[in-house]
Design brief:
Layout (H helix, E strand, L loop, with lengths): L3 E6 L3 H14 L3 E7 L12 E4 L4 H12 L3 E4 L6 H14 L3 E4 L11 E5 L2 H11 L2 E5 L15 E6 L12 E5 L6 H10 L4 E5 L8 H8 L3 E5 L9 E2 L2 H19 L2
Parallel strand pairs: 1-2, 1-4, 2-3, 4-5, 5-12, 6-11, 7-8, 7-10, 8-9, 10-11
Helix pairs in contact: 1-7, 2-3, 5-6
C-alpha cells in the first residue's frame, strides 16, 4: 500500500482521538499531521506531527497541502471555527484533496432546560444583563470581548490558560480549567459563585455538557449561542466513522491500481 499523508485540522478532543486512532489502525502506511491554531499554550499530547499556527487563508492552506503532499484532509475543528472550516473547503476544492468534516452531535434540549437561543455573541451580550447579575461566561477566550459593553453584570469567566492581560470586562473573575468536567464540579461552581445565568456556545460534546445539567437542576437560564452554518461536503459525527472514511479511501485507491 502506498504511504499516505493525513492533515487533521484540530484543537478538539475528537482531533486528538482521531490522530491516535489513525496511527493505530494504519501504522506506517499513514503519516499524520495535526494543525493547531495555537490559542492554547499547553495543548494535550497529540501523536504524530504537530503544526502550530495559521495558514494564511484558503490560498495558504492549498499551498501547504501541495507542498507537504497531503492527500487526505479531515476538519475536526471546533463547531464555531467557521473561518478555518471555510478555508479547508476551498483549499480542498482547489487541490482535489478529499475532505471530511467531523461534526460532533449538538446537545439535545431537555424539557426542563431554560435555554434562550440566540444567533450571535453580540445578541447574548445584549440579553445577559436582563436575565441575571452574576453570569458564568463559557465562550472561550477569543469571544470574551463581545461582552465588553454589558452593564450591571459580574462575570465568572472560565479559561484554559490564564489571560496575559486584563480582560475587556467591567467586573469579572477568572477560573481555570480544562474539560472534561464532572456534574459535581459544575454544580459546585454554580453554587459557590451564586451564578444566576449561564452563557455558552452550542458546542456539543460530552466534555462540557455537565454544566447544562447543573444549570437545569438549579433552574437557571442558559443563553445558548447557535452554531454557525456548517460548510457543505461529507461529514460524520464520530471518530470511528472518520476512520472508516479513511479506510474507504484506501480501498478505492487500491482498486484503481489493480489491472
Amino acid at each position: 500500500m502506498t504511504a499516505r499523508h493525513l492533515l487533521i485540522l484540530g484543537g478538539t478532543g475528537e482531533a486528538a482521538a482521531l490522530a491516535r486512532g489513525a496511527l493505530a489502525q494504519f501504522g506506517e502506511n499513514l503519516t499524520v499531521t495535526t494543525a493547531l491554531a495555537g490559542r492554547t499554550r499547553h495543548p494535550g499530547p497529540i501523536p504524530g506531527e504537530v503544526r502550530i499556527g495559521g495558514f494564511g487563508g484558503p490560498g495558504g492552506l492549498a499551498a501547504y497541502l501541495a507542498m507537504r503532499g497531503i492527500d487526505r484532509l479531515i476538519d475536526a475543528t471546533h463547531p464555531f471555527a467557521a473561518e478555518i472550516s471555510r478555508a479547508a473547503r476551498i483549499a480542498a476544492d482547489r487541490t482535489g484533496v478529499p475532505r471530511l468534516s467531523v461534526m460532533r452531535p449538538p446537545w439535545r434540549r431537555h424539557p426542563l432546560d431554560r435555554w434562550i437561543e440566540v444567533d450571535s455573541l453580540e445578541a447574548a451580550a445584549l440579553l445577559v444583563g436582563r436575565l441575571g447579575r452574576r453570569a458564568w461566561l463559557t465562550v472561550g477566550a477569543g469571544s470574551v470581548a463581545a461582552f465588553a459593553s454589558a452593564t450591571g453584570v459580574r462575570f465568572l469567566v472560565r479559561l484554559v490558560d490564564p489571560p496575559s492581560e486584563r480582560l475587556p470586562l467591567r467586573f469579572y473573575e477568572v477560573v481555570l480549567g480544562r474539560g472534561p468536567f464532572s456534574l459535581a464540579e459544575e454544580r459546585h461552581l454554580l453554587q459557590r459563585h451564586a451564578i444566576d445565568v449561564v452563557v455558552c456556545k452550542a458546542s456539543g460534546g460530552a466534555a462540557t455538557e455537565a454544566k447544562l445539567v447543573a444549570a437545569r437542576e438549579l433552574s437557571l437560564p442558559v443563553i445558548m449561542v447557535r452554531r454557525p452554518p456548517a460548510e457543505p461536503g461529507p461529514s460524520v459525527e464520530t471518530v470511528e466513522a472518520a476512520l472508516d472514511w479513511l479506510a474507504g479511501l484506501d480501498h478505492q485507491s487500491e482498486a484503481k491500481r489493480m489491472p
